[in-house]
Design brief:
alpha+beta
């Protein structure tokens, strides 16, 4: 995946609560409304929930998977945006 033309999200979970922090990295992040703090991943957009759920099944650290992302550790993920959802 060419991340230079896509948004990449750092998704970090608190290890004691359901609290989630999402930070967008990349030029495509200018118009995104997805970044911020969430009380639960269920408050994030559906496409983000699906990608994190898929990545959560992987052992960590995982390999990078095109159009999906990678699992960094127990509570941290890189989620790749496929350019269809920036700003939603």
């Amino acid at each position: 995946m060419n991340i230079a033309n896509n948004a990449v999200y750092l998704v970090s979970f608190c290890n004691t609560t359901e609290y989630v922090r999402i930070v967008c990295i990349g030029i495509e992040c200018i118009d995104t409304s997805i970044t911020g703090n969430y009380t639960s991943i269920t408050k994030a957009p559906d496409w983000m929930q699906r990608k994190v759920a898929t990545l959560a099944m992987l052992s960590w650290p995982s390999e990078s998977i095109d159009n999906l992302g990678e699992r960094v550790d127990e509570h941290t993920y890189w989620v790749y945006d496929d350019n269809k959802s920036v700003g939603q």
